[in-house]
Structure prediction request, 226 residues.
Amino acid sequence: MARVVLIEDEADLREILVYNLGQAGHRVQAAATAEAGLRLARESMPDLVLLDLMLPDRPGTTVCTALKHDPRTQDIPIIIVTAKGEEVDRIVGLELGADDYLAKPFSVRELVLRMSAVLRRGESKGPAVIEVAELRVDRDAHRVEVEGSELTLTALEFKLLTTLVTRRERVQRRSTLLADVWEVDPGVTSRTVDTHVKRLRDKLGAAGRFIQTVRGVGYRFSDTDG
Prediction:
């Protein structure tokens, strides 16, 4: 599940996208103007911004520029969704720092697939070293430390941990973890996911509290109380 800010002035389309993206497991906050959308993105720090270019108060390109020039928000992926589908418009959008460009009309399924691809690219470009309280994960060196002591994890446990850590605060369904960590091994069941999460928690000791169970759905890595 990703936290998404949608900046779209067409009320009908906005409502459709909020509903369908919610059905796909994402949490969406929407704004109808550039100013409101920019403020919402800065306040909520989402995982992804969906941005229309033709907004009533000012062009969406100014929102893209503002987000990409702000050190706090420059790494938030942006997908431009707009009726302006000419090649020159695509080039301008991408040159401003957008991560993808989708011309209207488009299917919700295509948008969801594009969002997944952009989010995955963002994870692969993430920091090599991630530190959360007493937990330290070095992705390049394949090392995990808790309170300065190195842990011995299997390759699968390390992949499971880094998947959860890089998707921090986003709920991961068991089916998603099966696809992304086990790569859809037909012999794997959701019970296997639960077993591996329990083993990983045990090895992490005090830091195991960061892996929270979302009952009936899956798991979430969070350093806040779940």
